[in-house]
Amino acid sequence: MLTPVTKAGDSLFIAGTAYVSHAAVFGRSSLADTDLLLAVLGFTLPFITFRATHVYRSHRGDSALRSAARVIAAWLTAQTLLVLLSRVADGTPLRNQWLLCWTGLAAVGLVLERYVLYALSSSLRSRGLRAIPIAIVAPNAANREILSRIAPQTHSAFVPVLIFDPSSSCDGVLGHVPVVHQMQSFKRLVVEAKLKEIWIIDSPFRPVSVEHLLEAFQHEFINLRILPVLDEDGSLEPSVGDYRGIRLLNLVAAPERGWKVVPKELFDRSFALVAVLILLPLFAVVAITIRCSSPGPVFFRQYRKGINGRVFSIYKFRTMYQRVDKPDAIVQARKNDARVTTIGRFLRRTSLDELPQFFNVLKGDMSVVGPRPHAVEHDEYYKDLVQHYMFRYRIKPGITGLAQVSGYRGETAQVEKMVGRVKLDIYYVQHWTLSLDIKIICLTILKGFVSGNAY
């Protein structure tokens, strides 16, 4: 999305619709002092919520619908805060009508703006007007995954048109892109094509020597850049961060917490508190049913890893008979598992056994959305089988998560299933936004709590 243009358009729509809606409701009368203050707050608050939900962060690859949904969520949050603040002053029916009209008109404008910009951006990209041709320097470029690895990071704004592979023994073609192996040929083709960008695909484990490139192009006005590739399967993405005033390339690092985590913390505690209050009658019914179905406590506690590997006790409704597990051994529940009670089978399939984890959220051990925590014994088993497995514990675990709404829920009998789950968890850790949390919660509700994989 064209960020400066988008910001200017948002400002215009928010301010313009405030004036138009006020004129429509109050007529030609001037703004009262209270209304003027509300107008200023209504213009300021959205850009706080927009920033908190990363509305202006580059989301290449997103559809216009996702972009529109993200800004609408942020806009409605801002207007909800404005309405609450307006209650402090003496309210009038006309003022309420004005705020409602303003909210609706601006929402329509913000959505239309994004669809127009999306269509414009797509049109320019289809004509190649925004795509910048680049040359790629990458040893072992014969690996056919290299272009697919580059594509997600260039976001279609940069198009590889030439590859230099000094490790190859001959020239060739890779996905319609010519590959050369001699520096002299590479330099000639770059100059003839008038390319202005050379990107070096570099791994800290197999660094590329750049001295000969600097020497070859020292008299040319060409940008030489390094695109870090930090791991073999591409699940971890490089990021440049500011750590205590020092700019660093993060190889493996926990997401910055600070003030950025405040919106998530507030959302988690508020959502969990409301959920507990609403679900208390259901809690009572489930508790009575469990006590009547089999002897033993209502709740089941098990140790799980939390943020940065800190161990905590997770709460669940008990779904198994007492003393059926072997000491120091935890086996995943399987289909027709004899350890599971009749009511327990129902609770597992409907995910009702997970509801007590809202208390873990209130305690601060978990989030509403995040990577699902596994039993500590399972962590010990999978951490050496699945690459970057433990990275998923760089943030608080969640009651639901991206992996769960993407089909990776329940038993993970095959390692491949756990690999798929971990990749989605890592993506969530590195791309978290408040709007993504809301989307996952909505998908959890829309897709239902029942799963055929939960035994």
TrEMBL record:
Its EC number is 2.7.8.31. It comes from the Bacteria. Keywords: Transferase. This is Undecaprenyl-phosphate glucose phosphotransferase.
